[in-house]
Amino acid sequence: MHKWGPLTAVCLGTFMLLLDVTVVIVALPDMAGALDASLTDLQWVIDIYALVLAALLLGAGAAADVIGRRRMYVAGTALFAAASLGCGLASGPVALITMRGVQGLGAAAMFATTLSLLSAAYEGRDRSLALGVWGAVSGAAAALGPVLGGVLTQSLGWRWIFFINLPVSVAAIWLTLRAIRPSERGTRRVDWAGTAAFALFAGATTYAVVRAGEEGWASARTGATFAVAAVALAAFVAVERRVADPLIDLSLFGRPSFMAVMAAGLAYNAAAFGVMPYISIWLQTVLGMSPVRAGLALLPLAATAFVVAAASGRLLHGAPHRWVIGGGLLLIGGGTLAQAVLDADSGWAALTAGLAVSGVGVGLVSPGLAGAALASVPQRNAGMAGGAVNTFRQLGFALGVAIFGTIAAARMTRSLDAAGVDGAADAAHTLAGGGAGALRGTATDEVLRAAFASGLNTAAVAAGIAGLLAGLAVLVWVRASTAPAGLVQTKTPVPVERR
Asked: Is 477 left (phi over 0), alpha (psi -120 to 50) or beta?
């Protein structure tokens, strides 16, 4: 097998699993119509995948040490493919959400092993090149998701955004078995208690935010769910302090640079992609655009992210992490704020400049974030740092979609109420969930367009502020480093799981 067979196998899986974080965005209106899904259902279709991926990523990395990394990657890919088939065949929102959760489980098994498989397959300059290609693929996948999702949804139907994973999975498994040697099993024990506690914390927090959008932040159910999340977090901390092989060494959070990079990972996915599902719904259900046109309207972010990510490794070789990551987050924050300019008469072009600026930031942050995480910890903690930053990234996306959706719906409620629409809260959730057509008998197009625009503006402001604050945190607390900002470097500490 050609020496780049392992890189191809790993990049196929990585692109597919990260693409599925955002590929559903443009298909949301079609899903809502076909499955009679509500705004809450749509939020969970997006969130459950990223949430399970984030919650199980660290535990999957430990399990891979026990059963073997190649075996874990192949098993995860097979499970991902089976769940993708289930998503494509789903007859209702509950079935789709369930299968998306199973997809997240398979994705966690795949993602936890990618870097260690590459580090074992390559050495020296080949390893640097392989990690650089992997970084560019990772940076482009989430940004390209809405564009590819729009093409598939319009040409073949929304179910094909899942069916397309089947041949890609088969190719990835075949290449993996042919090109990657089996790895030795380690003696590390899996921290099941810590994994369960962290999963409960992440799930309860996201559920509480989603429920707050319907029942209010002061409701008893919202408060009880946040209390469950707090107890789960306390249990996670207690477990990690006592277990022999923790998922994460909690002492790392005493390092300001590590904390800043984790905050950057959380804010990066939230600020760059958290509002995008609602932009897609606005484009299709309020402006009447097709899935392909809606995907193309988001192309400025995807295109600039891809170009900048591909070029940053060479052009910014040797640049300190703090300036590249911090500056990228400031661009994401500023670009997102620049999207908060909509009114009742706005079209898709009003977003173009802001999306392009955010795309430049995405292209800077995504390839360099893993390197910044590694530079913030001792070499012995490299594997933990790599897994932690990926966990925080996916958790940030899940929380961003939930929080910004809640903020947008709340602002739409106030706008519709001011316009005299009866049942403004229910109407706002219907509008945000892609049901603008069902409301046109109770409100004029101008009222609906103004309400949706106000919701998007408010959500974009919140997302932009999050990006700016995270960028400032990186600039202040991340130590100056002369290590390359991208993953393309000659002497990179490689984030491999302990063996």
From this structure: alpha
What is d(CA 51, CA 236) in angstroms, rounded to the nearest whole number?
17
Backbone angles phi, psi at 275, to 5 degrees: -90, -15
Mean pLDDT calculated for residue range 478-496 = 43
pLDDT of 215 higher than 80: no
Q: pTM of the full predicted structure?
A: 0.84
Q: What is the mean pLDDT of the chain?
A: 85
Query: What is the C-alpha to C-alpha distance for residues 67 and 160, in angstroms, rounded to an integer?
Result: 33
- DSSP per residue, 381-444: GHHHHHHHHHHHHHHHHHHHHHHHHHHHHHHHHHHHHHTT-TTHHHHHHHHHTT-HHHHTTTS-
Q: Is 417 exposed, middle or buried (0-12, 13-18, 19+ CB in 10 A)?
A: middle
Let me know if 485 is exposed, middle or buried by CB neighbors in 10 A (0-12, 13-18, 19+): buried
Average pLDDT over residues 376-397: 80
Residue 178 buriedness (CB in 10 A; 0-12 / 13-18 / 19+): exposed
DSSP-derived secondary structure letter, 251: G
